[in-house]
């Protein structure tokens, strides 16, 4: 029994960046998969990725993990680039075109760039990032509680507990106050 020959198609698959209407990335992924199946071109397409990461945000005082796109408006498609596949992708609903390269001959991105994006997606699943990045020294406004409408400078950030220590000036004195992320907003 002879060994199956590897198909030349698999060797020539490369990653391309497809520009989609913002907020419609998942719909583009679904539409592409349906069109690929209908056209019988499964052998010319590989993976389709919508780069997302999980973020932690406070909703009504409770931590919630939500998905956030870190390249809004972009979908990564692994494919063989020829006239048929180009037309299939280009004429998919909610796709505005390819990114990079010539108008009708887009340039692929490197495997290293794709791996960087996949690793960033994986990191987000293992350790969700906070929705907001706070920095020590940053001035924030208190939205609720006894210090509502006061401004203060962040002295300490605790992402594990979703708390900040903010120095608020009361009667001319700097007073450290511990607040939840949801009780403050960036100024």
TrEMBL record:
Domain NusG-like N-terminal residue range list: 12-121
Q: Which GO terms describe its cellular component?
A: cytosol
Does the keyword field hold Transcription? yes
Q: Name one Pfam family in it.
A: KOW
Q: Which superkingdom does the taxonomy of this entry point to?
A: Bacteria
Matching entries from SMART domains are given as: KOW, NGN
The KOW domain sits at 133-160
Q: Which Gene3D superfamilies match?
A: 2.30.30.30, NusG, N-terminal domain
InterPro entries, per this entry?
A: KOW, NGN, NGN-like_dom, NGN_dom_sf, NusG-like, Rib_uL2_dom2, Transcrpt_antiterm_NusG, Transcrpt_antiterm_NusG_bac_CS
GO biological process, alphabetically ordered: DNA-templated transcription elongation; DNA-templated transcription termination; regulation of DNA-templated transcription elongation; transcription antitermination
Recite the UniProt keywords alphabetically.
Transcription, Transcription antitermination, Transcription regulation, Transcription termination
Family affiliation: Belongs to the NusG family.
Q: Quote the function comment for this protein.
A: Participates in transcription elongation, termination and antitermination.
Name of the protein in its database record: Transcription termination/antitermination protein NusG
